[in-house]
Specification:
- By secondary structure, the protein is α/β, with parallel strands linked by helices.
- It contains 14 helices and 20 strands.
- Strands 7, 9, 10, 11, 12, 13, 17, 18 and 20 form a 9-stranded mixed beta sheet that branches. A 7-stranded parallel beta sheet has the order 3-2-1-4-5-6-19, sandwiched between helices.
- Helix 7 runs parallel beside helix 9 and helix 7 crosses helix 14.
- The longest helix has 18 residues.
- The protein starts with a strand and ends with a strand.
- The model has no long low-confidence stretch (mean pLDDT 94).
Length: 405
């Protein structure tokens, strides 16, 4: 396997550090718009000759396809933010490479009823081309991070091995992470965080299909394992709700994120001020008027999440809460994966949230390389057997857990 990794930020860099310990691939080309980031990621790996740094503009489909051809890469792994999903998705198809991402094509709210009906849903643009990929015998594995990704694997595992019927699958994400020295320092890409938190959340119900609610709706307190404890969680737009029902039969699917009241109020304020907007605005500068995206300015003003590990303490948890029936009796479980920031920093030099995101696409790549996972079309993690993934994740030194509720 020869991999083109596009994006050398926090997650991309963590991917290289995890992959460097595994023998399943022949080469990994690390490409970024900022060549210094790609070069730094490769240099940190020492003498491992499988890694090479390149510069590429992720929005330039032709340039990405040419890079895939030049390095004879058979897989494109997208570690950029969701703005670049479609050009990278198309570049992989053009070059005849398999495609893997951790976030899907962007949604657009319904123009008249944004908090009741879906407009363009997450992943709609990719699934619109599913038949073309399937007819070509090509694979796009979409949503293969931690959430979406591992959480979807948990959903498939629950359906295959733990339940006869599933009433609800609720993805629940929470943490007790603290970043010292910062009043507001998101532990993940702020561009993505704003997108998923301020868009109308999607809920799935079998008798209704997909529909939307208001941001931060339906608050609940969920008790997270391994010392994290109770965290208030709210509805947030996320790919699992759009992916899980395509392959796993459940009467209801939700995603709730443990954000905390202060974080939610900050996001609401940013929205009121228009600082979450992506459309450029004209601002004065020493060189005359320039156009900038308010959300890009926000990202530039906040600390890079990849640099926060040294001042971060605590654990992060991703998981799927599932309730239903097994052997005629009610059952309720929480399948989860916890990463301690102290461990991930000591072991990999990567903070917990980006490391937890990064390990899952590497596990998936290894399953694809060995032929344990295979398929054609635009497929989510639920389309593949779960047990091999969970066994290999444990082999990577990061076991998962199951708690009977």
């Amino acid at each position: 396997m020869r991999v083109l990794l596009v994006g050398a930020g926090g997650v991309g860099t963590a991917i290289t550090r995890i992959a460097a310990r595994r023998p399943f691939f022949e080469a990994m080309v690390v490409a970024d718009y900022d060549p210094a980031r790609a070069e730094a990621a490769v240099a940190a790996l020492g003498a491992d000759g499988r890694f090479h740094a390149e510069r590429v503009d992720a929005s330039d489909e032709a340039a990405v396809a040419a890079l895939l051809d030049r390095h004879r890469c058979d897989v494109l792994l997208n570690a950029t933010d969701p703005r670049f999903v479609m050009p990278l998705f198309h570049a992989a198809r053009t070059a005849g490479a398999r495609y893997v991402d951790m976030a899907m094509s962007l949604s657009r709210p319904h123009p008249e009823r944004p908090h009741e009906e879906c407009g363009v849903r997450l992943g709609d643009e990719q699934f619109a081309e599913a038949a073309e990929w399937a007819e070509a015998g090509a694979l796009a594995l979409v949503g293969m991070g931690v959430e979406p990704g591992l959480s979807d694997v948990f959903a498939r595992y629950a359906a295959d091995e733990l339940f006869d019927e599933i009433e609800e699958i609720g993805i629940r994400d929470g943490a007790n992470l603290i970043v010292e020295g910062h009043d507001f320092a998101p532990s993940f890409n702020i561009w993505t965080t704003v997108e998923e938190c301020l868009n109308p959340p999607v809920v799935y119900e079998a008798d209704r299909g997909w529909f939307t609610t208001a941001p931060f709706s339906e608050p609940e307190v969920f008790d997270f394992p391994e010392g994290i404890g109770p965290v208030e969680c709210v509805n947030v737009e996320h790919e699992e709700v759009l992916l899980v029902p395509r392959w796993v039969k459940a009467r209801r699917v939700t995603f709730k994120y443990g954000l905390g009241g202060e974080f939610i109020e900050t996001l609401k304020t940013l929205h009121r001020l228009g600082l979450d907007r992506t459309e450029p605005v004209t601002v004065p500068s020493a060189r005359g008027p320039v156009q900038v995206s308010p959300r890009d300015v926000l990202a530039a003003c906040l600390p890079d999440p990849a640099t926060l590990g040294g001042s971060m303490h605590g654990k992060t948890c991703a998981g799927a809460w599932v309730r239903g029936v097994k052997d005629g009796a009610p059952r309720e479980v929480y399948l989860y994966h916890v990463v301690d920031n102290q461990w991930s920093m000591a072991e990999y030099g990567s903070q917990a949230v980006v490391w937890q995101t990064a390990v899952n696409p590497v596990v998936a790549l290894e399953l694809l390389a060995t032929g344990v996972w295979s398929g054609a079309g635009v497929l989510g993690p639920e389309a593949f057997p779960a047990r091999p993934f969970l066994d290999l994740l444990t082999e990577y030194g990061s076991p998962w857990g199951l708690r009977e509720q």
